[in-house]
Amino acid sequence: MKIRFEENFIDSLALKLQFIAKDKPLAARKFKDELIASCKDILHMPYKHRKSIYHDDENIRDLIFKGYTVVYIIEDELISVFALIYHEKYKNSRVD
Question: Is the residue at 95 inside a domain?
Fold first, then answer.
């Protein structure tokens, strides 16, 4: 089985890394290295991660990494990583 990083994922990652690198270049490199390592780990157990909340397909999965969702699809002998999504956590606030 092989892994392929799609253009959309690469572009999203590049933007995130540019943002981090403005203040902390070493942190950007560490983030990238750890994220890519986590993606490559998918090869060992592709169905380990939850079914995607963004797609209604058992072969599309969500890997959660430091508040980000890496979305990938499992096809025959290929895993395509195609999205990197970040959603801000909403603070619980009371309205009286």
Answer: no
